[in-house]
Write a structure and sequence with these properties.
25% of the residues lie in helices and 30% in strands. The protein has 6 helices and 13 strands.
């Protein structure tokens, strides 16, 4: 049987944003086909940039070993962040803009310098960080019922949707990223807890992996880029009307409402 082309898979995913979720992409991608999945992601990234969307950073996913094991891989993945994916701290997200969203708490970095070296070290990343933020990533999937393989989520831009950064960022100096305790509340009730070490042992490790991977692909991180470094605890499905509040000890807090603000 002839496999569906990468271009056709990319078109299918783009259409799903408006038409609704689609079955897993098994007709064109084997579950662990990283090269093919990133090829599909790149096709759509170029399409959206040509349509006027602006890249403002990257997100790291699959930074928890348990999730990697679940999907049969031994590495994280990444997706692209566009300017229209950002929600203001304290703002609102219209449920009509999502399909099957979930929220997760993360630590984010904003870069103050380029990271062009495929051998970028954690120390070089730390030196390039301009500010550290508490963050919420609203993940979503164009794949029906979140029945994703590694290839599905990579092709689908890392199952990305929207993100929130704390309005105020901190200098990296003196922060305990590994030990930072996270608490996420929906409507005042705790729904997820975690710690900074959940992101590859330290969110800076996830940022260094991103820097190395993207530089090797000829798409290096730039000054001003936002980096979402991976979930600190379990993601939780959103229901219209939910108010989401994240607090990360020593880092900060941010929030948004899934519905009318």
């Amino acid at each position: 049987m002839t496999k569906t082309s990468h271009d056709d898979l990319a078109l299918r995913l783009r259409a799903a944003y408006a038409a609704g979720a689609v079955p897993p992409l098994r007709d064109g991608l084997d579950p662990t086909d990283a090269d093919g999945a990133y090829a599909v992601q790149t096709i759509n990234t170029r399409y959206w940039v040509a349509a006027g969307r602006r890249i403002v950073g990257r997100k790291a996913g699959l930074t928890a070993k348990a999730v990697q094991t679940q999907l049969g891989v031994d590495q994280p993945d990444f997706g692209v962040l566009f300017d229209d994916m950002r929600i203001a701290d304290g703002g609102a997200l219209d449920p009509a803009r999502t399909l099957q969203p979930k929220a997760e708490a993360e630590i984010a970095f904003v870069l103050g310098a380029d990271l062009p070296d495929p051998a970028t070290t954690v120390e070089q990343v730390a030196a390039a960080v301009a500010s550290v933020h508490a963050a919420i990533e609203i993940v979503d999937s164009r794949i029906t019922d979140w029945k994703i393989s590694f290839a599905d989520t990579v092709a689908d831009n890392g199952s990305s949707a929207f993100f929130v950064l704390s309005q105020t960022g901190l200098s990296l100096a003196g922060l305990d990223l590994e030990g930072a305790a996270m608490e996420m509340k929906f409507n005042g009730a705790v729904v997820s807890t975690g710690i900074g070490a959940a992101a590859l042992g330290n969110p800076l490790n996830a940022a260094a992996w991103l820097a190395q991977t993207l530089a090797a692909r000829g798409e290096p991180l730039k000054a001003g880029d936002v980096l979402l470094a991976g979930a600190l605890g379990p993601m939780v499905a959103l229901t219209p009307g939910d108010h989401v509040d994240v607090r990360i000890a020593g880092i900060g807090a941010c929030s948004f409402t899934y519905g009318e603000g």
